[in-house]
Amino acid sequence: MFSELDLDPEDHYDFSAHWDTFNPLSLMPDDPYPLSKQVLSPPSSASSSSGAEDASGASAGVATVSVSTTFFPGAILDDQPADITLRSLDNVFFAVHTQRLLAPSSNGFNNLLFSYTNHPHSEHHHQTDTIIDVSLTSSILNIILHTVYNLSCAHYVPTLSDLTSAVASFPTYGLSLCTYISPPNPLYTLLLSHAPTSPLDIYALAASHNLADLATATSSHLLGISLSSISDSLAERIGPVYLKRLFFLHLGRVDALKRLLLLPPDAHTPTAECSEEDQKSLTRAWALASAYLAWDARPDTSASVIESALKSLSSQLTCELCNNALAKRTGDMIMEWANVKASFISFLPHFTNITTSTRARSASGR
């Protein structure tokens, strides 16, 4: 995420002087995405030391300056060169463009850039000679800057904790969460990539900031969790609205499964080998298997579990027509269960349609 420039602490440090001679190629590491990289600073114009003396000086009394490996001077991130430098709490420097930060911010990037724009640099000091301290760690500031520049920071593998802190900092710097955390923006994609492994954390993050798109996409990964595992503190973070939606998603899918199980296979025209009374054995067997599935019904019940339980009934049937009816009803139910939406936003309208369809079929005598 950043590289380090070696500087002699005895010398006066002029940060802008290094920008003019900074070589971006020196940031190319063996590890493609390092946390830090040391490169030697350019020699002083007053220095007449030999190469050996330089080497000995570099090994003793040398301070380091950490520079972002994305937002370094000379990085091609805009049509214009970077005109200001941000310094994080852990002393990592980011060369950025004032207008890129001011344009999306409603408060001058937490009022840090208002004074800068009111007192612009002279022409010969246009490039990053002003350093502004930002009260964020480099990992969090890195996420925010990548987001503002519409870049993905996924290759830095930021922790979920840093992502959460970065999202929480957006309002402080006048940045709209809904603008940047919505598809197909890079930060939205990065947060959603954590949903399979940390669904509750991502859902709580989305809920606490009312990020409906992220909450909806994450909700399908919450079908396997136990609602009783949600702690009081987590429930408080999620809030009543999104907590209710999560409960309704779980309860609604279980109810939808039970309603689908209520409808048995269609009866066929009685034959000499299988009378109307004989066909009741299939109905009873279906009811027994349905009761077993309904007892253990979960919002994430898999199609294979349903299919295995229902198709096992065929071993008790001798009538080919009954077997065909069982296979057809099992296949239809698997399709209907697959069509029950797994996210809360689109669940209720679909569930209403399924309920209406089931009632209509029952009323028609099927």
List the helices and strands and how they pair.
Elements: E1 2-7, H1 15-21, E2 38-40, H2 51-59, E3 63-68, E4 84-87, E5 92-96, H3 98-102, H4 108-111, H5 114-118, E6 131-133, H6 138-148, H7 160-169, H8 177-180, H9 186-193, H10 199-208, H11 212-219, H12 232-262, H13 276-295, H14 303-311, H15 320-339, H16 347-363
Helix pairs in contact: 6-7, 10-11, 10-12, 12-13, 12-16, 14-15
Give me the strand/helix succession. EHEHEEEHHHEHHHHHHHHHHH
Which of globular, elongated, flat, extended, rod-shaped describes the shape?
elongated
Averaged pLDDT: 81
Distance between the termini: 65 Å
Tally of separate helices: 16
Region (Disordered): 33-55
Biased composition (Low complexity): 44-55
Protein name: BTB domain-containing protein
Summary, kept brief:
Residues 44-55 have a biased composition (Low complexity). The protein is α/β, with parallel strands linked by helices and 366 residues long.
Task: Summarize the structure in words.
- This protein folds into two domains: 192 residues, no CATH class; 113 residues.
- Helix content is 49%, strand content 7%.
- Strands 2-1-3-5-4-6 form a six-stranded mixed sheet.
- A hairpin with a 4-residue loop joins β4 and β5.
- The termini are far apart.
Q: What tags apply to this protein structure?
A:
366 residues, alpha/beta, 2 domains, six-stranded mixed β-sheet, 6 strands, BTB domain-containing protein
